[in-house]
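TICKET: design request
STATUS: open
ATTACHED STRUCTURE:
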């Protein structure tokens, strides 16, 4: 019994702590985008990629700067190597050989070396490539931010769409339930046919099914938005913008006044980075024909003893030093270097062609996105007008149906027309928001 109480208490404490860890957030769309740019998982790693590229650039730079190394080497000659010399050197008989040992049992060397690259064509190219490498990841971060803005806008809009849809469905449900109740009472009095009641029951069942599905969708859409924002899916999230105001902000009738500059598009900039990388790779292969020049200096001490007494003050240490210059001149590689150079040249030409293709494709994408956005604005205006007409038609048919001047089929058809107009209107608002976001992405407009 005591153990059960303890376990129950621990579970209660754990659940309490879990609830305390939940946080609450409230965002407009702009606030949500700003939060995502700082906390989205992909955006965070894109920033880290830039830091790695900066360190890589310094790593490349450091290879051409002075390099200093130190070393300490200790050797214990357990068994000294023996050699033979003519015995007569030591007073022996001519023709005989004596065994001798050279060296001491313990040897130690301490050494410091300095090396400096004086000229290397590949190093110069590597420095240029490191800058391009950094620019690529900076552009990739911009691309990631643009994609994050687009995802946040889409998911934010989907949540608002689901909320508006639920509100409309609940309103339609309440109206239908009232109509169904009145129709059932009228049928009991024998004033209408049973088919009229059944038609309303079918429509109500459809509304209930749509409402249930939309409630599930809003939960999924909200969780997707939380993940995109870098939040825990159990955190509370409140969206303070509404669909009507957000759509009005995205309706920009002056967007076509500015010309499209393809060079501002981040996809073009990344393709240009790729072309520059291939150009530098070609340049690197040509640099292989140039000589390399480097210098070095060494300074050190060594000591020898038959006992390990190197730490004694009277131990003798012998110093040594040297300086050197190394010149390496490539002469003939059996055309191996030429083959590599030609491969790099072809890769560079391919990158140039890909850049031209990317430029043309981006211009086409801009025209397509511009057309889609214009169409979304037109559809928004049309669906808004159609919704008002559908509401008036449904209202008139409802009055006629109650007065017995309209059939259940006509009334049901008017209801379906209204529901379709409502959905088209909501979808047109989302299309305006999403198409404007897609257009801003291509033009690199934040």
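STATUS: resolved
RESOLUTION: sequence designed for all positions
ATTACHED SEQUENCE:
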């Amino acid at each position: 019994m005591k153990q059960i109480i303890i376990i129950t208490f621990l579970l209660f404490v754990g659940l309490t702590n879990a609830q305390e860890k939940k946080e609450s957030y409230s965002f407009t769309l702009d606030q949500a985008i700003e939060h995502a740019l700082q906390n989205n998982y992909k955006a965070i790693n894109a920033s880290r990629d830039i830091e790695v590229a900066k360190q890589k650039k310094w790593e490349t730079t450091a290879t051409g700067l002075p390099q200093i190394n130190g070393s300490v080497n200790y050797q214990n000659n357990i068994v000294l190597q023996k050699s033979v010399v003519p015995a007569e050197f030591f007073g022996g008989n001519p023709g005989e050989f004596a065994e001798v040992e050279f060296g001491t049992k313990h040897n130690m060397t301490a050494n410091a070396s300095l090396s400096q690259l004086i000229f290397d064509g590949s190093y110069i190219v590597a420095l240029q490539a490191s800058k391009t490498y950094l620019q690529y990841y900076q552009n990739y971060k911009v691309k990631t931010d643009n994609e994050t803005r687009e995802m946040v806008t889409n998911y934010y809009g989907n949540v608002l769409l689901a909320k508006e849809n639920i509100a409309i469905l609940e309103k339609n449900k309440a109206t239908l339930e009232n109509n169904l109740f009145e129709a059932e009472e009228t049928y009991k009095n024998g004033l209408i046919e049973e088919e009229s009641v059944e038609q309303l029951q079918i429509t109500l069942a459809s509304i209930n099914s749509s409402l249930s599905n939309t409630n599930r969708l809003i939960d999924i859409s909200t969780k997707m938005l939380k993940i995109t924002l870098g939040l825990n899916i159990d955190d509370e999230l409140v969206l303070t913008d509404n669909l009507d105001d957000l759509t009005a902000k995205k309706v920009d009738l002056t967007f076509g006044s500015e010309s499209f500059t393809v060079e501002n598009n981040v996809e073009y900039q990344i393709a240009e980075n790729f072309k520059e990388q291939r150009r530098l790779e070609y340049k690197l292969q040509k640099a292989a024909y140039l000589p390399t020049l480097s210098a070095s200096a060494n300074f050190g001490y060594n000591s020898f003893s038959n006992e390990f007494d190197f730490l004694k003050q009277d131990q003798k240490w012998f110093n040594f030093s040297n300086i050197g210059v190394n010149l390496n001149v490539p002469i003939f590689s059996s055309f191996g270097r030429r083959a590599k150079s030609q491969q790099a040249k072809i890769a560079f030409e391919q990158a140039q062609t890909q850049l031209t293709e990317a430029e043309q494709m981006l211009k086409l994408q801009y025209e397509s996105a511009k057309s889609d956005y214009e169409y979304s604005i037109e559809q928004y205006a049309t669906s808004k007008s159609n919704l008002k007409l559908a509401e008036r038609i449904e209202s008139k048919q409802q009055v006629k149906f109650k007065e017995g001047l309209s059939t259940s089929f006509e009334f049901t058809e008017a209801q379906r027309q209204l529901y379709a107009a409502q959905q088209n209107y909501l979808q047109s608002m989302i299309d305006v928001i999403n198409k404007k976001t897609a257009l801003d992405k291509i033009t690199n407009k934040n």
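CLOSING REMARK: Residues 1 and 402 are 67 Å apart (CA to CA). The longest helix spans residues 121-188.
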